[in-house]
């Protein structure tokens, strides 16, 4: 069982990723840290608490950054709505812990032996970067970092950049420099986890629990992606959790990675070197293919176990 610190910005797909993590016995979720991103922190924090509460979990939910290391979060209202959950209202969750995410992460790492934790980042990487930047020696407590971020081709926030990478490129750069083995779940991978009406209908048939129902309502409320041809929308963040729970669903390779931190139209671009053409930069694991039917079976089966 992996001890996991999960950092998020719920976020419709973040909500599903949280439920998948909470429903998966392979993962021991120790803390959920929250940043602004898809919506402001004033929305993402109560959203995270509500998602955790609906699952009947008592895992601490801790507030973090309401802005990236530079500038401000752009928000992603077109996908997640003003409220961050595409208008689906959940019962309020338990009150968030009175602490700051980066401090809470450092505290857990300090008390742990080497390689004890897996960090999962499914929002702007600000909180995770703040934790490691102020005490870099703590990186040895982390066995692995799994991030939903970046793309080897076109972005979704700008032509050059994916939303999480573009939201805080400096933070992503800090994580890459930590030397911790990192897996990057990109837009090309998550495009294969396409939510269609048929897949939602199949998931609805699996049960009547509140989390499964809310997950299906959320997926139904997200508009189809024009970028992907309008057939459905990509379920980005649950792919990062699925990578840890069911790696056999993925095909992956090793690749090089650099992130563009300059101002201008390329800001937040992830230069992903799949073919050994970029001698400098970090080495990452890059999942490239996903068995989508297996992924949706995993997601539905696990969410059906929740209250
Ligand atoms: C990422 O951006 C957010 O809108 C999603 O929650 C996901 O983490 C996809 O680019
Ligand atoms: Ca997210």
Automatic annotation (TrEMBL):
<protein>
    <submittedName>
        <fullName>Purine nucleosidase</fullName>
        <ecNumber>3.2.2.1</ecNumber>
    </submittedName>
</protein>
<dbReference type="InterPro" id="IPR001910">
    <property type="entry name" value="Inosine/uridine_hydrolase_dom"/>
</dbReference>
<dbReference type="InterPro" id="IPR023186">
    <property type="entry name" value="IUNH"/>
</dbReference>
<keyword id="KW-0378">Hydrolase</keyword>
<dbReference type="Pfam" id="PF01156">
    <property type="entry name" value="IU_nuc_hydro"/>
</dbReference>
<dbReference type="InterPro" id="IPR036452">
    <property type="entry name" value="Ribo_hydro-like"/>
</dbReference>
<dbReference type="GO" id="GO:0006152">
    <property type="term" value="P:purine nucleoside catabolic process"/>
</dbReference>
<feature type="domain" description="Inosine/uridine-preferring nucleoside hydrolase">
    <location>
        <begin position="4"/>
        <end position="297"/>
    </location>
</feature>
<keyword id="KW-0326">Glycosidase</keyword>
<dbReference type="GO" id="GO:0008477">
    <property type="term" value="F:purine nucleosidase activity"/>
</dbReference>
<dbReference type="GO" id="GO:0005829">
    <property type="term" value="C:cytosol"/>
</dbReference>
